[in-house]
Amino acid sequence: MDNQNATPSTHSVAGERPTVVPNSGCTIPAPIAMKDIELVPPARWGSSPSLPKIKISKISHMRYRHPLSGIDDLTTFLLDFGMEVVKRTETAIWFGGYGVDQYVYYAEIGEEKKFLGGAWEVESWEDLERLGLG
User: Fold this and answer.
1) What is the DSSP code (8-state) at residue 122?
2) What SUPFAM superfamilies does this protein's entry cite (predicted)?
3) N-term to C-term CA, the chain
4) Computed from CA positions of residues 66, 72, 78, 84, in that sequence, does the dihedral angle turn out positive or negative?
5) Which pTM value belongs to this model?
6) How many CB atoms within 10 Å of residue 111?
7) What domains appear along the chain, each with residue ranges and CATH number?
């Protein structure tokens, strides 16, 4: 290969961006992969006075919608990942983890994949008030 940073799953010509073969498990250098992404330096992360900042102390759970056609693959993946089915209905599955939470992943069975939201724990009531949620 012309590009010594490319893996066998990429095709490259010297001086050009490698062409990545989809779903091949390839790796390309971060500067190439992130070429079109704006880099925001850490010094600017908290510099927007219009956006209130709070400290999240814990992710409670995530909620997603998954099509019925992929629900068995999702279940296999999450079980392999160490979760367990704690409740299952015709329209949803709740997956538990190792902690004390009743569930950590909620999978609604629906037409299309969609992020439905999540729940987080914060350090104080004041954090919620700062966001306008208290």
Assistant:
1) E
2) Glyoxalase/Bleomycin resistance protein/Dihydroxybiphenyl dioxygenase
3) 58
4) positive
5) 0.59
6) 9
7) 1-35 (no CATH), 56-131 (3.10.180.10)
113 pLDDT more than 90:
yes
DSSP 80: H
- Using DSSP, how many helices (H) and how many strands (E) does the chain show? 3, 7
Which two tokens mark 18?
């490698």
Q: Tell me the chain's radius of gyration from C-alpha atoms.
A: 21
* Residue 112 and residue 70 in contact, taking contact as beta carbons nearer than 8 Å: no
In sequence order, the β-bridge partners of residue 61 are: 119
Say whether pLDDT at 3 is over 60: no
- Short-list 121, 61, 72, 57, CA closest to 97: 61
What is residue 54's predicted lDDT score, i.e. its pLDDT?
81
Between CA 114 and CA 112 the distance in angstroms is 6
For 101, left (φ over 0), alpha (ψ -120 to 50), or beta?
Answer: beta
